Amino acid sequence: MLGLVLAVVLGLGLLAACGSGADAPAPDAPAAVGQAAPASAEVVTLDSEAFRARTEEPGVVVLDVRTPAEFAEGHLAGALNLDASAPDFDAQVAALDAGAPYAVYCRSGARSAAAVERMQAAGFTDVEHLGGGILAWQDAGLPVE
Fold it and tell me: How confident is the model at residue 21 (pLDDT cuts 50, 70, 90)?
């Protein structure tokens, strides 16, 4: 029960962080409930152009960690939607191929940075995120579906 409560609180915190109007850096969130990110893991942040190039590399999985409602309003072509605020986010991540390369984004960059930390804690090693999120992507004139 405590684990569920912590997961809900963490999810709400992530939602609030990326849903606010500010493009603040990612909050210090644990990698997963009861599990800290490895000290050597560093979140790699890409600007819009570098992220665009990354998404065009063969085999890269583009991961949108916003809510399904946000995703429906517009997303990057070919993106897979896994809601970082969902209580089962870690379980959904565990079902992914940890050896594949990932390009992760959200609205402003906070949720995606936290999601990358959680993915790294789960053993993913080739994960980068979009600084400024889809807002920066759109400001750069890049397309959404």
Answer: very low
Task: Give the active site residue among 46, 82, 106, 110.
Answer: 106
- The edge-to-edge listing of strands for the beta sheet with 44-46 is 44-46, 127-130, 102-105, 61-64, 80-81
**Rg, Å, the chain Cα set:** 14
Tell me the pLDDT tens digit for each residue of 39-88.
Answer: 457 999 999 999 999 999 999 999 999 999 999 999 999 999 999 999 99
DSSP letters, 85-119, are TSTTHHHHHHTS-TTS-EEEE-SSSHHHHHHHHHH
CATH class of 2-20+40-139: alpha beta
Domain ranges, ordered by start, for the chain: 2-20+40-139
Catalytic annotation present for 106:
yes
Q: Are 87 and 8 in contact (CB under 8 A)?
A: yes
CA distance 142 to 139: 7
